[in-house]
Known about the structure:
Blueprint: H1 11-24, E1 28-31, H2 36-45, E2 54-59, E3 61-64, E4 67-70, H3 74-87, E5 93-98, H4 104-112, H5 114-124, E6 128-134, H6 138-147, E7 152-154, H7 166-195, H8 200-207, H9 209-220, H10 234-239, H11 242-273, H12 277-302, H13 308-328, H14 332-346, H15 349-360, H16 365-393, H17 398-404, H18 407-431
Parallel strand pairs: 1-2, 2-5, 5-6, 6-7
Antiparallel strand pairs: 3-4
Helix pairs in contact: 1-2, 4-5, 7-12, 7-15, 11-12, 11-14, 11-15, 11-16, 11-18, 12-14, 13-14, 13-17, 13-18, 16-17
Amino acid sequence: xxxxxxxxxxxxxxxxxxxxxxxxxxxxxxxxxxxxxxxxxxxxxxxxxxxxxxxxxxxxxxxxxxxxxxxxxxxxxxxxxxxxxxxxxxxxxxxxxxxxxxxxxxxxxxxxxxxxxxxxxxxxxxxxxxxxxxxxxxxxxxxxxxxxxxxxxxxxxxxxxxxxxxxxxxxxxxxxxxxxxxxxxxxxxxxxxxxxxxxxxxxxxxxxxxxxxxxxxxxxxxxxxxxxxxxxxxxxxxxxxxxxxxxxxxxxxxxxxxxxxxxxxxxxxxxxxxxxxxxxxxxxxxxxxxxxxxxxxxxxxxxxxxxxxxxxxxxxxxxxxxxxxxxxxxxxxxxxxxxxxxxxxxxxxxxxxxxxxxxxxxxxxxxxxxxxxxxxxxxxxxxxxxxxxxxxxxxxxxxxxxxxxxxxxxxxxxxxxxxxxxxxxxxxxxxx
Length: 432
């Protein structure tokens, strides 16, 4: 529904129109006009049914001298958007549209100026769900899409993203890493049962077919740039951001917490319960991967109802509890359960960190994702090595090695708390 339809209508007429929209299944309202009477009437008509509608609110439109005006002056932009939220009795909107960008010069001004920074901050604060752009110029629209900054385009038809919660989709995507691990363990176990462990070289060659297929897929798959050409922050810019360094620490600890438990779970099951190698693999790494996949699927399914940072913090506490259970419990079965549940606790850490950085550092580009992945891999290499070294130095006591591994979830929890503090400081700075 275009907001022009509500202009010059009485509050009763606006309410009747909303009733008709709801009855006919029309649930999206475009809010470009800054007319104060329309905003107030519409806000009153929507009382008690906010959750039934999707709002596409425009930035850069103000009411001045009794008429609509487009503006790029950041003070006016902020005042206009705050007026919309106040009059319509809203705390947030689904889409924040940057209004009427029809020339390339105007796009450059918006893209690199305070308007885009304001929109990004609103998104980081949860005031808008997605950043959109209103344009009637195909060249501008194409440039905006290439920049990686714009998630929604309207020209002039409403165009929405295919999913509302990218962090949930990211978690679901990463769950397939877990299912791949489960498949490798199960199929390898069956292969060894049929052909013997001595045939491991044949199995290695068979598994090598998968990366060969991926080489082809990556070679032919078109991948859009994450930012406009030359618009990414680059490595130097990223290294100047405190948030990025916190994310690096978080990724290192996430990788270490995950791989330290996953790689030693089989040995733990064998030593603690006297299981065979095959049974240890199934009870340890396989169940660890299953639980990690379940965690990511749950967030992928219900992520829109869960706050990502709180979910990650709770998972960090659970991870610490699992490490303590595996290292201190006198009951071997209980310790093995701790190993399994640890998979659930670390599931959200890797994709969650990437999602947070994507939202708060939108211009990070390829460099950001590459460096974060490197940090996670570094933790995945260092963590198991530390656990193994401590185990060897304590007379092959794997429990003591696991106890030393508690340092990773502890630092992870601290990094998450620092990230929350950084977010609060960002909000204060932005308000000033």
